[in-house]
Structures are given as structure tokens and as C-alpha cells.
Amino acid sequence: MSEISTKPYLLRALYEWCTDSGFTPYLAVKVDAATTVPMEYVKKGEIILNIAYGATSGLKMDNDAIHFRARFAGVSREIYVPVQNVLAIYANENGQGMAFDVSTTAADIAPAADEPTTGAPTLSAVPDVTSATPAAEVSHSPDDDNEPPKKGGRPTLTRIK
Fold first, then answer.
1. Phi and psi (nearest 5°) for 149?
2. 34: domain range?
3. What is the pLDDT of residues 15-36, one digit of tens each?
4. Which of 111, 116, 141, 161 has the least C-beta neighbours within 10 A?
5. Beta-strand runs (E) in the chain
């Protein structure tokens, strides 16, 4: 039987302590390919996230990952953080909390794309069609031109690249 990590249990306990004490819980996260965070806020491969009840929507702290929705500059974003990537959880007001050693992240553990798998289903990136297709082969429909819409006609959708 494999050993169960205490880290997700400690994260949930410290989150609960912070909220019960009236403090704002913050997560320090090591960002890698397994995390889904707004990259424009990442500094030196790390990001600090406010996970207070008022700052998140749908916060779920599982044994494998922490996921929620939060607003960044007014835009709602989906956040996904593997528990292995959490560097620390602490109260913003007084700095009390717990730090963790992150020697291997979730991306380090995931098998590389060229390694054979054991038959388990996996996800892989799909190449962007617009970048793979040469410009000469891209068809342009009448609605794709850059002219302003004509008044009184059918509404059109203009794509901005």
C-alpha cells in the first residue's frame, strides 16, 4: 500500500485555521507545465494566490490538486495547482503558516511525451491549426474582410488576430 501524503490535509487545516481566525489565506506556488495560473503574474517561476472565500469561487482542495476560479484584473480565470507544487500556505496578516519542500513538481512526475505509456489514457497538446497552415491555404470568407459592417445589413463577427 502506498503512503498517503499529509500535505493536502495540512493545507486544508491551515486554510480552515486562517478563515476561522479572520485571516486571509495565501498560497505560494511553484509554477510549471502542470499548473494553470495567469502567467503574467508569475515571478521567478512562482506565484502568490489569495485563496480567501471572498477572492475565489468554487474552491476545492483535493488530495491531488487545488482548483478554483478567481479574478485577475477583472477577468475570471480558472486556477489549477497540483498539491505537489504548493510551496507554502500562510496568513497574509501575520505570516504564520507552513512552508513545504518542493523538490519534484507535478510536471516532473508526469511521463514525457516520447515515453511509452502503460495503456492508460493521456492528454496531449493539439497543434494550433492557424500556425500550422500556410497563409496561402487559409480561406477567407466574405465575413473575414476588414471593412466596417454595412448599416442595415446582417450583423457580422469580425475576428481579430
1. -65, 145
2. 7-102
3. 999 999 999 999 999 999 999 9
4. 161
5. 25-30, 46-50, 56-61, 65-72, 75-82, 86-91, 97-99
Report the alpha-carbon distance of residue 128 to residue 5 in Å, rounded: 38
pTM above 0.70, yes or no: no
Tens digits of per-residue pLDDT, 98-154? 999 888 777 777 554 444 444 455 555 555 555 444 444 444 444 445 555 555 556
Nearest residue to 59 via CA among 33, 104, 89: 89
Number of alpha carbons in the 13 Å side-chain half-sphere of residue 78: 4
Domain presence at residue 140 = no
Q: How would you classify the pairing of strands 97-99 and 86-91?
A: antiparallel
Query: Residue length, the chain?
Result: 161
Q: Are 42 and 103 in contact (CB under 8 A)?
A: no
31: its cell numbers: 509554477
Residue 139 forms part of a structural domain:
no
For residue 150, is it within any domain?
no
- Residue 135 forms part of a structural domain: no
Q: Total domain count for the chain?
A: 1
